[in-house]
Amino acid sequence: MLLRVNAITDETPSIKTFELVDPEGLDLPIFTAGSHVDVTLPDGQLRQYSLCSAPIERHRYLLGVLRETNGRGGSRQMHDRVAVGELLQVSMPRNNFPLEASASRHLLIAGGIGITPLLAMVHSLQVLRADFELHYCTREAAQTAFLALLGSDGVASRVRLHHDDGVPGRGLHVAALLTTVTPGTHVYCCGPAGLMAAVKAASAHWPTGQIHFEHFAAPVASVLVGAGAVFEVEIASTGAVYPVPPDRSILSVLLSEGVPIDSSCEAGVCGACTTRYLSGEPDHHDFVLSDAEQREHVMVCVSRSKSARLVLDL
Ligand code: FES
Q1: Which of 215, 222, 269 best tests ligand 1's pocket when mutated (most atoms within 8 Å of CB)?
Q2: Contact present, 277 and 296 (Cβ < 8 Å)
Q3: Predicted TM-score (pTM) of this structure
Q4: Dist. CA 270 → ligand 1 center (Å)
Q5: How remote is the CA of residue 93 from the centroid of ligand 1, in Å?
Q6: First to last CA, the chain
Q7: Is the CB of 301 under 6 A from ligand 1?
Q8: In the 8-state DSSP scheme, what is residue 291?
Q9: What is the set of domains in the chain, with CATH numbers?
Q10: C-alpha to C-alpha distances, 247 to 172, 243, 244, 264, nearest whole angstrom
Q11: What are the pLDDT tens digits along the chain (314 aa)?
């Protein structure tokens, strides 16, 4: 989709929101809370941003973007080069982080800009009149975005703000929050790697299906392209077989052989390259698929194969 930047708002000195609308004023495709879109930046790179507006709003998508001075440059382009009135190429929404419909309670844990997918969840849970609690961790009040929404009627009583003032150990006590496994409660976490790791460790005794993470970047040293031995991928529909050397991904081999396959992040976090496999044993390295999903699908941008051949349903 080509969407027009209708408004840009400074939420904090380093976080802006971008309101995107259809240039003709048409309704935008429906999305569900937790969804993200791929945005094509001015230099042609793709970045994933969560939709933080209310899913019931059809006239706009709202993206929250933190300007990361030491990042790969995508957020700096959004902050410094994108202006109101410009058109941005935006993918259809994709959701790897949905609310669990069967949950009786939702425990949301956000760190910094990781609040964005959880904001959409807050909107939806309010509409559903569902039981939820949001823990929002930031360094200090001045760096805390979206306080107007989070302080509004019907939401404020469910929000706990935690500021650590940059002091490790201060702020949210994740282990205490997750000590007791509560049947029916689902936990959703999005934030910096440290917070995600802390929640993962503190929830190790919870059933994995009750804990949900949204990654925007692969944790360091998790992408294992370059590791392991050569293996083969077979395209089921044609019988074509291609070797995948240690220093290339399945995705890169398939694309260079002219096999069309969707991709975006190339880091195992966006879900674009999800591919069904028919036989073989993948060596999964993604951060999206559940255990059950990994029994049928593989993310070809980061995953490899433990078996000598992996047959893809392509
Ligand atoms: Fe994003 Fe593979 S391209 S998960």
Answers
A1: 269
A2: yes
A3: 0.85
A4: 5
A5: 14
A6: 26
A7: yes
A8: H
A9: 2-95 (2.40.30.10), 105-213 (3.40.50.80), 231-312 (3.10.20.30)
A10: 41, 11, 8, 19
A11: 999 999 999 999 999 999 999 999 999 999 999 999 999 998 998 899 999 999 999 999 999 999 988 777 889 999 999 999 999 999 999 999 999 999 999 999 999 999 999 999 999 999 999 999 999 999 998 889 999 999 998 899 999 999 998 887 788 999 999 999 999 999 999 999 889 999 999 999 999 899 999 987 766 544 444 456 899 999 999 999 999 998 899 999 999 999 999 988 888 988 899 999 999 999 999 988 988 899 999 999 999 999 999 999 99
For 94, the enclosing helix (H) or strand (E) is strand 94-95
298 lines ligand 1 (CB under 6 A): no
145 CB under 6 A from ligand 1?
A: no
* 299, 304, 312: residue to mutate for ligand 1 pocket, most atoms within 8 A of CB: 299
Tokens matching residue 252: 């890169």
- Please give the structure tokens belonging to residue 311: 């047959």
Would the CB of 303 count as within 6 Å of ligand 1?
no
| Number of the ligand 1 atom closest to the C-alpha atom of 265 | 1
- Residue 286 Cα to ligand 1 midpoint, Å, equals 8
Q: What is the DSSP letter of 157?
A: G
* Rounded-to-integer distance, Cα 104 and Cα 267, Å: 33
Backbone phi, psi, residue 19, to 5°: -95, 120
298 Cα: distance to centroid of ligand 1 (angstroms):
10
138 phi, psi to nearest 5 deg: -140, 170
The CB of 299 under 6 Å from ligand 1? The reply is yes
Tokens of 288: 């999206």
Q: Indicate if ligand 1 lies below 6 Å from the C-beta of 266.
A: yes
Output the six-digit token pair for 128: 């559903």
Cα-flanking dihedrals φ and ψ of residue 198, to 5°?
-65, -40
Q: Please tell me the chain's helix, strand, coil percentages from 3-state DSSP, rounded to the nearest 5.
A: 20, 30, 50
